[in-house]
Design brief:
Elements: E1 3-6, H1 17-39, H2 42-48, H3 56-75, E2 78-91, E3 93-99, H4 113-127, E4 132-138, E5 142-149, H5 152-160, H6 174-184, E6 193-199, H7 208-217, E7 221-226, E8 233-234, E9 236-239, E10 242-245, E11 255-256, H8 260-269, E12 274-276, H9 284-292, E13 297-309, H10 311-327, H11 334-345
Parallel strand pairs: 3-4, 3-6, 6-7, 7-12
Antiparallel strand pairs: 1-2, 2-13, 4-5, 8-11, 9-10
Helix pairs in contact: 1-3, 3-10, 4-5, 6-7, 7-8
């Protein structure tokens, strides 16, 4: 078993230049052909420059793009994990329950409630060390998006896929999210477990207080983060391709408001804290400080401890392709031309 990873994965963004390079090439080639047509008959011009190859510039472009791609991959420093060890870690099990109902698209927190929450969670994951994390999404129902794991890269990957279309059943079933989190924690000892609920608090589906009391009895600490403002904001929707706001049956624009009181009560029942997020404060920083005060749990985890670099193979391949690209001229190959003449003679 081995693990493949990039030490500098951000360098792979440079691969986006390859389509741009190809686009520039073909635009210039098109303009060149257009300019040639203005000079005279294309067939006659081709006869005046019999040694010029039409296919080789494209071949050189392909080689150049492949070389560029290999070098970029090499600079990203690909590595293969070669030694898997079982190590002991001390940390907290944290599950984040994220509201993905349509009300989270409101823009009283920029860019909107859900996107701001995802940005905050991503930063939160970056600060985790020996902890484990899981993700739950909920609207009218609750689902496990990511089981408890020590793989923070996987957590950020799953986080990036979250949107309001994940759960078709609308609503805000906070109680269901709490109940699901209790069954999602690993192990019977719940003294080292925390649940962070990120929502606007407009619970219309169940008795979240009762679920919070149950979680507290089992030793799970519940923190709540309120996304939104008490004044509220309309919910953006797309209407026949045009931007609009959600309206009720009477045609009145629906305003979604933060239910701060409910979230405060859930936090009290869960022996945690409530934090209201804003454009200046996302709330997770404060919650992180509370979690860091909790007693740590010792658990075993398998982790790759040794990695071998493989960048040299990609850099070497890239340089070799660049050499081929440099050697190949734009002139027609004599042996291909002779082969064409023999074939034409037949």
């Amino acid at each position: 078993m081995s693990l493949f990873r990039f030490a500098h994965i951000e360098y792979l963004n440079a691969l986006a230049f390859i389509p741009l390079i190809m686009l520039i090439f073909f635009v210039m080639r098109y303009r060149q052909r257009k300019a040639w047509k203005k000079l005279g008959d294309p067939t006659l011009l081709d006869k005046l420059s019999p040694q010029t190859s039409n296919g080789k510039p494209v071949l050189k472009l392909i080689l150049y793009c492949l070389a560029f791609g290999f070098i970029v991959i090499g600079l990203a420093s690909p590595q293969i994990g070669t030694k898997l060890e079982e190590i002991k870690r001390e940390g907290i099990d944290v599950i984040i329950a994220l509201d993905v109902s349509n009300s989270m698209k409101a823009e009283d927190i920029r860019p909107n409630r859900l996107e701001r929450a995802k940005q905050s969670i991503s930063r939160f994951i970056d600060k985790l060390e020996n902890d484990r994390i899981g993700l739950i999404v909920f609207a009218g129902k609750a689902y496990v998006q990511l089981p408890i794991t020590t793989d923070f890269s996987a957590a950020k990957l799953f986080l990036s896929t979250i949107n309001t279309s994940l759960i078709p059943t609308q609503g805000t079933a906070i109680g269901a999210a709490i109940d699901l989190s209790l069954s999602s924690f690993v192990g019977k000892d719940n003294k080292h477990k925390a649940l962070i609920i990120i929502t606007d608090g407009e619970n219309h589906e169940d008795d979240a207080m009762e679920s919070a009391k149950k979680a507290a009895k089992e030793g799970v600490v519940i923190h709540t983060i309120g996304m939104g403002s008490p004044e509220g904001a309309p919910i953006p929707v797309s209407n026949n391709g045009n931007s609009d706001f959600l309206k009720d049956n009477n045609g009145t624009t629906v305003i979604t408001k933060l239910d701060q009181l409910s979230l405060e009560k859930i936090a009290v029942e869960g022996k945690g804290i409530f934090v209201r997020a804003s454009n200046a404060e996302d709330g997770l920083e404060t919650v992180m400080k509370e979690i860091s005060k909790m007693d740590k749990k010792t658990f075993e985890a398998k982790q790759f401890t040794d990695y071998e670099d493989r960048f040299q193979y990609f850099i070497g391949a890239g340089l070799l392709l660049l050499l081929f690209e440099f050697i190949i001229s734009n002139r027609k190959s004599k042996w291909i031309e002779r082969l064409n003449q023999i074939m034409a003679g037949k």
